[in-house]
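cron nightly-structures :: item 1 of 1
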Amino acid sequence: MTPRELDAAGIHEPALRAAYTACRRLNARHGKTYFLATRLLPVEKRPAVHALYGFARWADDIVDDLGSAATADERAHALHRLRELLDDGLRSGTSTEPVIRSLVHTAAVHGIDHRHFAAFMTSMRSDLTVTGYASYRELGRYMYGSAAVIGLQMLPVLGTVGPPDEAAPYAAALGVAFQLTNFLRDVGEDLDRGRLYLPADLLAAHGVDRDYLEWSRATGRSDARITGVMKAAAAHNRGVYRDALPGLALLAPRSRPCIRTAFILYSRILEAIEDDGYAVLHRRAVVPRLNRAAVALDGLVRSLVTRAGTGAGTSPPRTATSAAPVPEIPARPVREEVA
């Protein structure tokens, strides 16, 4: 965390500054897409976002790190210990563990509902034992805790132009849209972890099952049925992005360039998957660096224009009338194979 960001956020105590800095390092190392978008936030908002994502990254690494030799029992113990640290920190208002310390401080400053953190931990715990989902409805219950609540945690930090409750469903949907994109991009790696986030009924509709996906992963071979599954999953994902899009106009103006940029960058991951022939079982789709840079530059320009219009240190009034039109975001037409 840069001193400028910490000073702007009113974070002066040395141990707390060090805690937030640790979270920023986590995000810079692991969450490149969202870290890039976070740079477009007003400086005083960035520490809180890094705290939220730093904690989520820590929990995710416990359950997902393919490079770790930890057993299932060891992962369960580590996750249980993290939950204890979280509960103790939220109860006492502080922690000696840096990531928890910054998270607890962020939750207190921004009034984040503690139930969001509990729901997140519940979904992380299920990843240790649940290996698949029967339907999108069933997957949605998992994703409420793993993705929707991330959007809900972020909302008080980002600010809104009207009642937060009006923006909440869109924030939750955007968290889900981002995670669905990650699921599709990482389907091969998740199979290596023993998990599958493509619903069984979606597979069955295309004459595919889990064993067939594992065969494809192992042999490097594919066919039209598997491609059909991936196309349908991408179409479903685009529908969730459409559901989330109107929420961008409900955010505080100075936060919109960041979230708009994240929206476009994640959408471009979906486009990269499509352009690569939906070969996600065999290789990871990547958005070219120049493409990401162009999106980020556009976001930076929008951010500077917005700050110039509202005043660098002035928050816009929280009224519904201050909402700007929904920005036009490039998107490909949804395919006919919507599940």
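cron nightly-structures :: done
The chain has a mean pLDDT of 88.
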